[in-house]
Amino acid sequence: MNRTDNLMLRRRFLQVSTAPFALVMGLDAEAQATAPQKYGADSMPGGTVDNPLVFVSIAEDGAVTIVAHRAEMGTGVRTSLPMVVADELEARWDRVKVVQAGADEARFGNQNVDGSRSVRHFFEPMRRVGAAARQMLEAAAAARWSVPVSEVKAVQHEVLHTATGRRLGFGDLAAEAARQAVPTREQLQLKTPADWRYIGKGKTAGIDQVAITRGQASYGMDVLLPGMVFAVVARPPVVGGRLRQADTEAALKVPGVLRVIEIPGFQGAPAFQPLGGIAVVARNTWAAMQGRNALNPQWDDGANGSYDSTAFRREQEQAVKAPGTVFRDNGDAPKVLSSAPGGRRFSADYFVPHLAHATMEPPVATALVNEQGCEVWTSTQNPQAALDGVAATLGLKPSQVKVNVLLLGGGFGRKSKPDYVSEAALVAKALPGTPVKLVWTREDDIHHGYYHAVSLDHLEAALRPDGLPEAWLHRTAAPTITSLFAPGAKAAAPFETGMSATNMPFHVPHVRVERAEVAAHARIGWFRSVANIPHVFATQSFVHELAHRAGQDPLRYALALLGPDRKIDPGSISDVFNYSESPQQYPIDTGRLRAVIEAAARGARWGRKLPQGHGLGLAFAYSFVTYTATVVEVAVKPDGDLSIVAVDMALDCGPQIHPERIRAQMEGAAVMGLSLALTGEITFQNGRVQQSNYHDYEVLRHAQSPRTIRTHLVGGDPTLPPGGVGEPPVPPVAPALANALFAATGKRIRSLPVRQQLRKA
Q1: Residues contacting 392, CB < 8 A, separation 6+
Q2: Are the C-beta atoms of 627 and 593 separated by less than 8 Å?
Q3: Which of 83, 301, 332, 752 is disulfide-compatible with 238, CB 3.0–4.6 A?
Q4: Beta strand spans in 419-468 (E)
């Protein structure tokens, strides 16, 4: 067998005659109950996910190449998932090379990096890939030595004959391994957790760590191709707006400007389509931006031109006063609430504004269109949506589009919506044979993003004599993400209310969760942790208020509210519970939630005497099938000047595949959560976003950051299915901060951002 011979570890063979390896393997789902997931309203978090094809290749010199089919945006997935393959394969990490896959649904399955699903959904498939390759290498060695396969064992890039000590390297065996029978699912012998070398050890260096540190890593903004030109776009300032006129001649007079190209806007719901407008193409980005300034475009704002976020908040406040569509109904909460004595009935409203992703690297894509089709280089969380969007926009077959996936300078959900990629393709179509880099400025990103839904949540409780709630009502009003895909949609989808509203795990006999209908006047998109952010802010602030009314310590009150340790079947409390692909695999375990609460409290030394002006605040959540808790310590001076003394974060995600990356995600979530809570706010007037850059849509500065962030990993049971990591630590941060501020000052924060609410007049 020569080097171009290859074997795909599947039920059928795939011919890849150009692979320069002796052995090429991959794994796909054996039998799928559903068709492969695409993207859109029916693939929001909680939808069925297809299993990927994951490939590992072994060359004759023993070098192992592992394909990363998921994009890297700081979560460490390009390290964590290949590390799992290498561990099961018994490969030496220093002999592993990771290569990034482009968009290829047929080979790799779902590649959309959102919903904290990468490790959660691909841990086991990656293990099977590595284990199958290892067993085939072992079988090849046993055949060469004419010994039983039970006498051989792969150990760190070699196969050892345990009886004689003979050894053969992976490269020596790769060609022969390709002739071995492919292990079936039943024949696979996965390692026991006790034998893991890399999984859970936290010592594996990140694949991109050195390149990023040295400034050698390639992001979308780094693409430079021969003959490249640059483009920026003047877009309608209001969603659904249309261009009336523009001074294209003035733009063309700007030195360096080459072309002015009109981009059509979307029809129907915006989805991932371009907003429309005029592209200015130039020899450099500065000339393109100056040409855009000269356009002086005039717009027809359309139906959303009157959108005002202050007025919209009043609309939300009215909406939650009336009963809404019921999404969870246990017992008879309305009856208990209506009959409760006035002193034992309490209600409060909580508000979270629109938020922008504001990634450090704004959207950017480079496209080249020629007779063969279109090739794209971009930072995207969703390569398949980018490919399909380009194909549809240009009228090409998907096979005529190639998407090269580069590192992302931040994503948070924004870059899973590839409208900017289709924009680049449209401009490149007008310049066949010329690569076009289309760049969004920071102002473009803030003005024309997909915003986290502005949310208003109303909560009520009827309290027993011991201060704990007998009944609980949660009514939420927020524009829905489904408005991206269905024009005029006003009803929140089950996956939205399923995020820390319907899946509330407190030990309360009577519970009702409702949603009110409000319209969307901007592009509403998923955002890191999605609806968990407003729902957890509301519920955890409310719990703290109830504890205060009961005169009880918030920690003891929260633990009492959880009730006895138990495993809750999500279907038993709501038929719209979300983010549990399998209720049997992912019951809500209040014992695990209790453990993270106690861990965060221990880390913060809850109950100690604090200096004057200091306060501790606690909040916790169950999201993306992971348990998190946060304690924030604040110090507030008499004039209202605030500093964050410390943040303690505890997390139980089940198996801890790469502990250092988990800690990094937790630390990043602390900073992002504080940033959103303190200053994050997008407002609209006349349909237009009022913020423009980091001076008025602030992210946390170094001086404002916590002096200390302590992370506490809890559990780690390798027998449990994995939970998410990237998103779950964010939601508890804001309510923990608000609760700490109350403890320090006596001032209750029910509306974000905090901003100047503490300042004295």
Answers
A1: none
A2: yes
A3: 301
A4: 436-439, 455-463
CB atoms within 10 A of CB 602: 13
Q: Which tokens belong to 114? A: 């959102």
Which of 57-61, 362-366, 734-738 is predicted with the least confidence, judged by mean pLDDT? 57-61
| pLDDT tens-digit readout, 208-229 | 999 999 999 999 999 999 999 9
Query: Domains (ranges, CATH) in the chain?
Result: 23-205 (3.30.365.10), 220-302+363-439 (3.30.365.10), 309-355+450-745 (3.30.365.10)
Q: Which amino acid is at 515?
A: R
| 17-37 exposure pattern, b = at least 16 Cβ within 10 A, e = fewer | eebebbbbbbbbeeeeeeebb
Backbone torsions φ then ψ of 280, nearest 5 degrees: -110, 120
Q: Evaluate if residue 52 carries a pLDDT over 50.
A: no
Is residue 8 a contact partner of residue 24, using CB atoms and an 8 Å limit? Answer: yes
User: Mean pLDDT throughout 407-421?
Assistant: 97
Question: Mean pLDDT for the chain?
Answer: 91
Return phi, psi of residue 381, to 5°: -80, -15
Q: What is the pLDDT of residues 257-285, one digit of tens each?
A: 999 999 999 888 899 999 999 999 999 99
Closest C-alpha among 37, 39, 617 to residue 272 = 39
Residue 79 near residue 204, CB atoms below 8 Å = yes
Q: Could you write out the DSSP letters of every residue in 574-630?
A: -TT--S-S-TTTS-EEHHHHHHHHHHHHHHHTTT----TTEEEEEEEEEETTEEEEE
- Higher pLDDT pick, 107 / 640: 640
pLDDT in tens, 716-746: 999 999 999 999 999 999 999 999 999 999 9
The predicted structure's pLDDT at residue 519: 97
Task: Give the pair of three-digit tokens for residue 264.
Answer: 């059509």
pLDDT confidence tier of residue 235, bands split at 50, 70 and 90: very high
Report in angstroms the alpha-carbon separations of 33 from 37, 49, 52, 384, 567.
11, 10, 14, 21, 27
Give the contacts of 547 (CB within 8 A, at least 6 positions apart): 467, 553, 554, 557, 558
Nearest-angstrom CA–CA distance, 295 and 449: 22
The pairing of strands 436-439 and 229-234 is parallel
Residue 235 φ then ψ, to 5°:
-110, 155
